[in-house]
Each structure stands twice: as structure tokens, then as C-alpha cells.
């Protein structure tokens, strides 16, 4: 998927996220945008179907706007084996790695 989402304004992204025919790769492309407005991050994180996709979870975890309750929700949707990898992978922010480690120890 090309990063077409970089050329789309936030109101258009909001409309796209309400489109039921949006594919998982398209959602992941939107989710990884570091400039994605917080309300749209919330829309993606709140969708259990999208969180079931590893591609979308990884995109969200790489987005610096995903933190706090949203980060916890993404990590809770992540299988334990994947959490172990996240806790040790340097491409993820330290906040993400620390939250994954904490979740593993709980």
C-alpha cells in the first residue's frame, strides 16, 4: 500500500475511517501517521476488529500519539508472544517497551 494517507486531510481521514470497506492495510497506513489527530487515533484503537490485526497494532505502537489508555488497550489486544518481542525491540519507543514489560509482569 502506498502512503496515500499522507495527502489526505483529517476530515477526509475521519470519513475514510467510517467506511466499512476500508481494508486492514489501509487502516494500518492511517494508524502509523504521527500527525493523526487524537480523536482519529481513538477511533482506530476503539475498533476491536482493527486491533485484532497485528499490522494495525504494530502501526499504532509506532505512532507517538498512542499513549496512556490507548497504548494499554493496544497492548492488551496483543498476544503474549508478541508482547515479549515488543518489550525487547528497539524500533519501538521506550514508553511502548516499558508498558509491554509491565503488562508481562502483571
3D architecture notes:
With 106 residues, the protein is mainly alpha-helical. The protein is built from 8 helices and no strands. The radius of gyration is 13 Å and the shape is elongated.
Q: In terms of topology, how is this protein built?
A:
Layout (H helix, E strand, L loop, with lengths): L9 H8 L6 H8 L6 H8 L2 H4 L2 H8 L6 H9 L3 H9 L5 H12 L1
Helix pairs in contact: 2-5, 6-8, 7-8
Give the structure's gist in a few sentences.
The chain is mainly alpha-helical. It is built from eight helices and no strands.
Helix coverage percent: 55-70%
Mean pLDDT equals: 89
Q: What kind of sheet is the major sheet?
A: none
Q: What fraction strand?
A: under 5%
Element-by-element helix/strand order: HHHHHHHH
Overall shape: it is elongated
Question: How many H/I helices?
Answer: 8
Q: What are the low-pLDDT stretches, counting only 5+ consecutive residues below 50? A: none
Intertermini distance: 37 Å
* Alpha carbon gyration radius: 13 Å
The count of strands amounts to: 0
Structural class comes to mainly alpha
Amino acid at each position: 500500500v502506498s502512503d496515500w494517507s499522507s495527502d489526505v486531510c483529517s476530515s477526509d481521514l475521519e470519513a475514510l475511517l467510517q467506511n466499512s470497506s476500508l481494508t486492514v492495510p489501509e487502516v494500518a497506513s492511517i494508524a502509523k501517521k504521527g500527525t493523526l489527530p487524537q480523536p482519529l487515533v481513538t477511533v482506530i484503537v476503539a475498533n476491536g476488529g482493527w486491533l485484532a490485526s497485528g499490522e494495525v497494532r504494530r502501526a499504532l505502537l509506532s505512532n507517538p500519539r498512542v499513549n496512556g489508555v490507548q497504548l494499554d488497550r493496544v497492548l492488551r489486544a496483543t498476544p503474549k508472544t508478541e508482547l515479549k518481542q515488543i518489550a525487547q525491540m528497539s524500533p519501538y519507543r521506550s514508553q511502548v517497551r516499558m508498558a509491554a514489560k509491565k503488562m508481562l509482569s502483571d
